[in-house]
């Protein structure tokens, strides 16, 4: 078996060849998406990261890290991985009560600029070692200083992805999850976690948050569209030198999903935001930042949150449901 550093040099060559060979609209990732999720447009943010992985591969260019992954904070509710301060750095108004998801309410919201790294082409991602790596391996491959904040975050990502059953206070309510490093594998992981092999009966939703973020101001909720299903899969980015998404379905807790249209009261364009509401939080870690920020405790109320830039929601369509969102 090749040492990770030796294999890494081979993958750099593969990624560089991909960068020279594919155009934006004809990528294998785009064709895969259209085949598996017919009638569902690929979210713009996701398409941007796919193209970035071809034009500016993180395997070829120098890694600059670290970056603030608010997605990681959202994807772990049974163990404490994020502080309230870390969430606040990413924006304002991320968590809220389901009662606020109605036309006419006003929400004060902001999002910091997103720094999600590029998504690797599947051909490259399939050959990059990931499942059995250590943080030290990654530090050596990407020249990340040992003991740095980024390598600590990388270690958290590897542990989360290599854990078969994330810790949960109730053994019967384990959290199905899977990690993926290419768009194709993100979709496969989401469908597998959702419990369906076919994508034709599945919807996908993402927020239209600009990569540059949203300015702090009050936003009016102009439209609310409920999305099908009562159990959903969310795919969040995890800190890593290239894009790693962890797709999970939280235990036995029922969820409700929405698309809402926000209009800034101080100007700016309208933005459609994907929202997931967790109805039963009784088994969550009391240190989860949403509780302090919302002034509640586990089990006292539902917890809703926006989906950040490039994070995805998957659900099963009801009969006669809309073909895309």
Automatic annotation (TrEMBL):
InterPro entries: BURP (IPR044816), BURP_dom (IPR004873)
SMART domains documented for this protein: BURP
Domain BURP: 95-317
Keyword Disulfide bond in annotation: no
Sorted UniProt keywords: Signal
Pfam families linked to this entry: BURP (PF03181)
Cleavable signal peptide: 1-23
Taxonomy, superkingdom: Eukaryota
PANTHER family linked: BURP DOMAIN PROTEIN RD22, BURP DOMAIN PROTEIN USPL1-LIKE
Protein's UniProt name: BURP domain-containing protein
